[in-house]
Amino acid sequence: MVDADMTGQDGQSNSGSNSELDYRASMGNYHKLSTFMGSFSEMNIVRRFGTLQAQNILYLQAELAHLEDQLEQIREEDRESGESGDSEKTLYPRCWRTLSQQLEDGDHTEQYEKVLEIRAKLKEYNEALAQYADICKLHNPTKHDLNALRYWLVRPEGGDCFLSGLEAEPYLPDSKVVPPNDLVTLSSEHRERDLFSAFLADNVTTWMQRSFRWWTKSKNIDPETAGLQHYKDSKINAIAHFIGTFIASMLPAASIFVLYYVNSMIDRLCIILALSALFSFSLAIFTKAKRVEIFAATAAFASVQVVFIGTTGGQSPTPGITMNLT
User: Fold this and answer.
1) Are 79 and 72 in contact (CB under 8 A)?
2) Residue 231 backbone dihedrals phi, psi, to 5 degrees
3) How far is Cα 281 from Cα 262, in angstroms, rounded to an integer?
4) Cβ 119 vs Cβ 129: under 8 Å
5) For the packed helices 291-311 and 265-286, what is the interaxial angle rounded to 10 degrees?
6) Distances from the Cα of 71 to the Cαs of 63, 100, 108, 111, in angstroms?
7) What pLDDT digit, counting tens, does each position of 225-254 carry?
């Protein structure tokens, strides 16, 4: 994960700098940008060109609709010719060999030529559909990653504002050309994070960057990253995993401990309700469990507490009284 301290003036993304700067004097270039993106997968942020993708599919759909209509007209003409005495054309609907045979001049029948044309167009249409379906599965980049890329693009050690005009539009924060949801990330790292891991990656690391700037500045920073700090996702996931495991081990024991010292049955039921809600929220935050899995785990957690109440007979122990839990 790449992080940048963008509170200072150097880290501000100036949308007008790209148009004012002469790109020929810039030290940045596409090779430098591609090297940076190749080094950090979360920086692979590009346009999906959703409007053009949809327009291309609509045009192919329109072409196929007209070709389909033309094929129906040719079929109708061949049927009428067959009724008029051309016995060969009466076989077209039933015999593929007759339909696809070559005529004396070497060409295929008009109907079969149209079928071949539709086949080629249909293949192009299906490929466009499949490709766009895959593109639609890509997620938008996080605000954190997008800001880090913008930071690198304007830094003199990084992109040095080499992008200009329409080429810079995708990465401008106030672009009038590129819709905000038209940017996608090719990285799958943020999709694999749970809510807590995402919070650590996008907020805690930024806070650390700002609070311990003196420490990060003392480190040997690769000039190619233009001052950006890279935090390994494995370390972030390990921290999140440790905290989640600690909470998972404490919640069941804590619920029994609290219920042990509560006398009122109404109070116990309220505690079960609150702890079950806390347990389900913890699952949603610290894991990527599905909704049905959260329901099942919460029901099991609540049942353990109910069993405990049943074994204690609805009363918590008092000093000098021995409980029979059998």
Assistant:
1) no
2) -110, 125
3) 24
4) no
5) 150
6) 12, 14, 14, 7
7) 555 666 666 677 778 888 888 888 888 888
Q: Predicted confidence band at 257 (pLDDT cuts at 50, 70, 90)?
A: confident
Instruction: Tell me the one-letter amino acid at 134.
Output: D
Kind and range of the H or E run holding 52: helix 50-83
**Angle at the Cα of 103 (from 98 to 108), degrees rounded to 5?**
70
Estimate the share of the chain in helix, then strand, then coil, as percent rounded to the nearest 5.
65, 5, 30
Per-residue DSSP letters for 274-305?
HHHHHHHHHHHHHS---HHHHHHHHHHHHHHH
Measure Cα distances from 175 to 15, 20, 140, 149, 270 in Å.
8, 16, 16, 15, 52
**Can you tell me the distance from the alpha carbon of 323 to that of 326, in angstroms, rounded to the nearest whole number?**
9
Full-prediction pTM beyond 0.70?
no
Take residue 291 and report the two structure tokens written for it.
Answer: 């909704």
**Residue that wins the pLDDT comparison between 91 and 137:** 137
Helix (H) or strand (E) holding 184: strand 183-185
Ordered DSSP codes for 116-129: HHHHHHHHHHHHHH
Per this entry, what is the length of the chain? 326
Q: How far is 284 from 309, CA to CA, in rounded Å?
A: 27
d(C-alpha 160, C-alpha 152), whole Å: 8
Question: For the chain, how big is the Rg over CA atoms in Å?
Answer: 33
Burial readout 221-236 (b: 16 or more C-beta within 10 A, e: otherwise): eeeebbbbbbbebeeb
User: Which residue type does 60 have?
Assistant: L
Dist CA 129 CA 273 (whole Å) = 48
Q: Which two tokens stand for residue 160?
A: 């040095």
Residue pair 44/185 in contact by the 8 Å Cβ criterion: yes
